[in-house]
Amino acid sequence: MDTFLKATAGLIIALVFYLILAKQNKDYSLILTVAVCCLLAVCLIGYIQPVVAFISRLQILGQLNVDMMKIILKAVGIALLSEVVSLICNDAGNASLGKMLQFLASAVILWLSLPLFTSLIDLLEKILGAI
Question: pTM score, two decimals?
């Protein structure tokens, strides 16, 4: 929680600098935005590691397929990353690139999910074949 509060305070300070820089030089304000996003991503890793450890424990206890869990984690990571980069594109004044990135991320997540859908269809075929 302490890291979150420090990151939030740093973000507010960066926002003030952003507002000052945006009036003078839009390029520097964009660089500041990207740098702050990268620093916040580093803070994010500290919070994500226990979640990944919990999911690994859950996977072992439930005897779930490791590959399926990896797909789910990758999909979540892609969705979060594309959202952040899309917001940066919007800040840079190019909302169409941000929207296209989100569209691409959705397609990649669907592509990643194909093994999940295949397993689901196989399971349905087994259940319906047993009837």
Answer: 0.71
